[in-house]
Amino acid sequence: MRIFVSVLIFSLSIFQLNAQFKSSIITRESEVPKYQLPELLISENEQKITTKEQWETIRRPELLEFFTNQVYGIMPSKKIEAKYQTLEFQTNSLKGKATRKQVNIIFSNDDKKISMSLLIYTPIGVKKSPVFLGYNFNGNHTVNNDPEILINGKQEDELGEKKIMILKRDARGSRSSRWAIDKIIESGYGLVTVNYNDIDPDKNDFSDGIHPLFYSKGQLKPESDQWGSISAWAWGMFRVMDYLEIESLVDEKKVILFGHSRLGKTALWAGANDNRFSIVISNNSGCGGAAISRRRFGEKVSDINKNFPHWFAKNFHNYNENESALPIDQHMLVALIAPRPVYVASASEDSWADPKGEFISAKEASIIYDLYNLKGINSSSFLPPVNTPIHRNVGYHLREGDHDVTEYDWNQFIEFARIYFSLYNIK
Ligand code: GCU
What we know:
It is built from ten helices and ten strands. The longest helix has 22 residues, at 2-23. The chain has one domain (52-423): Rossmann fold (3-Layer(aba) Sandwich). It is 31% helix and 19% strand. The chain is globular and about 60 Å long. With 427 residues, the chain is of the alpha/beta class.
């Protein structure tokens, strides 16, 4: 009997815990708490910002500094050695439609070394091609079923026993639905991709990846204000950009930075820091990306910091269950990309990423585009219906469906790039 009672009590408390956890996820608009967004156009010392010069010299730097020290973490400014090594080059890939090039970037500092492997496709007949640049999750070979794509920069037979294991888990082309390669190439764009784990393996461990190459003597992990993984992945994109600036296949003035989900957060943060990315696209980036933290809809700051303690700077954990103490919100991250075109894409069933919160960010950030006389999303507009894209300097769409990247998304991104490259007449 005693045992029965304790089992019953135990199960009841598990049930309660579960219920508590579930009820703490906001999935209905009526449950969103009242909140006030911090003002984009009022500086820390209460100065009203009315011109783009004031934005660039006063408000923008203070916001960037806060995101750096308190949210994503400081990236090292020190340069380390980067060597480029061409692994493969073929002018007749994708049934003769594209050039394929694979390049290793090798970083080294003292006795430490890591490398990242780029896969580059550019359309045949385009001299210097505009490109979409984006990280992939599972390896370059998963983005397209092309037997010549190296696996972690290696030929299959160089992988030895690991080959079967890797290909079983991540088959060639297994993620191709997320990369509309044929469409991208046919539209005159190239694609540059790299596995994000090359720069920093996505686990709560700061002994591997790029971080140790920058540690001071005896340091084992970043300080509270130093870079977490999102900053490390962003840093990796800057280094790819360094390479693209000297890669003759690519038009370095037309590099469109793209990222999905955690890599959408990364794209926004990288784009905010480096204006060599001429367009920035975040797809379903959610919490810590485009979604407004104060809405607490879907994933909250405390959820993301608990489940992924390595993504942000340690300082960001101070805001768990305390979003209102933040002097920033994520619309300001989107605003940091101005005046370059930025695109925020959501999906209607992706409530964990808070589509409406992502839309609000895009809309609020548009105030900064106004300072440049560029048309963003009208301040009086509401979340558009599904599959009704807005292609202004700030772009947005709510795709019907789940957390994913689909052909529909790529159609919008390609069209958005086409509009802006011809509008700005970028040469
Ligand atoms: C998790 C995480 C999200 C993230 C997503 C992804 O769902 O909670 O913040 O965007 O993974 O990267 O796929």
